[in-house]
Every structure is written in structure tokens, then in C-alpha cells.
Write a structure and sequence with these properties.
single chain, alpha/beta, 2,3-Dihydroxybiphenyl 1,2-Dioxygenase, domain 1, four-stranded mixed beta sheet, 4 helices, 10 strands, globular
């Protein structure tokens, strides 16, 4: 089994798209003509992030079937090399995107968290010692 895609419902469609395109390095590509606005973002030729424009703020949704934002806590991407990790940190700094770094207890993994909007967090994780990547 492998991760196919993640759908993020967001009240900031264009800002979220810019983050995944300009910082993460995904490509904005073809998307079926759904009735709600959105973007499909691609990695290695596969649509891995589906962004959907929120149609109703969470505070107003109640029991409706509208697209309520946010609808996911976080999505995680694994980076395999120190070079990939450093390039990500450099892009975050260049775009002045704040982030938090945490070491995973009892492991050699490091996590980096970026809050895109209230309730939507993107995690990046790598299996390297903290002093090698931070």
C-alpha cells in the first residue's frame, strides 16, 4: 500500500497552492472540471495533493454536506537526503515561511512543521540526526 493523494479543503486556495508549488516544489497540473475550484499538484507525474476551495467556514457548517475548512490535520512528506532537507529549509527561509523543528523521541528522525492555516499543518520528516539537518 502507498499513499495515493491527500485532499486539503482550504479557505486560502491560492496561498496554499503557492506554498506547495513554490516551497515544496510540486507542479500545478491538470484537474478534472469539478463544480468547486481547486488545484491538483503533482510529484513525479502523479497528482499527490488535491486542493479544494472551502465553500463554508467550519463555524457555519453545522450538519451540512458543504466543503468545510479545514478537513485534515496534517500531511507528511518524507525527505530521503540531507541535500533535499537543506534545499527545503533554504526555500522556507527565502519565502519567510515560519516553521518548527522537532526530534522524534527514541529515533534518528527529525520533523519540520509548517502551519498553512488554522488546522492545516504540513510535516516534513527525515531519518537523519538533528545536527545534520537543522
Amino acid at each position: 500500500m502507498q499513499l495515493d493523494h491527500v485532499t486539503l479543503v482550504t479557505p486560502d486556495l491560492e496561498g496554499t497552492c503557492r506554498f506547495f508549488r513554490d516551497i515544496v516544489g510540486l507542479d500545478d497540473g491538470p484537474r478534472p472540471p469539478f463544480r468547486v475550484n481547486g488545484h491538483w499538484l503533482y510529484a513525479n507525474g502523479r497528482a499527490v495533493i488535491h486542493l479544494v476551495d472551502a465553500t463554508v467556514p467550519a463555524s457555519l457548517a453545522g450538519e451540512s454536506s458543504a466543503l468545510v475548512a479545514p478537513r485534515i490535520d496534517h500531511v507528511a512528506f518524507r525527505l530521503a537526503s540531507a541535500a533535499e532537507w537543506r534545499a527545503l529549509v533554504e526555500r522556507l527561509a527565502a519565502h519567510r515561511v515560519p516553521y518548527q523543528v522537532a526530534e522524534v523521541p527514541a529515533s534518528a528522525e527529525v520533523q519540520l512543521f509548517v502551519a498553512l492555516a488554522p488546522g492545516v499543518v504540513v510535516e516534513f520528516v527525515t531519518s537523519m540526526p538533528a545536527d545534520a539537518v537543522v
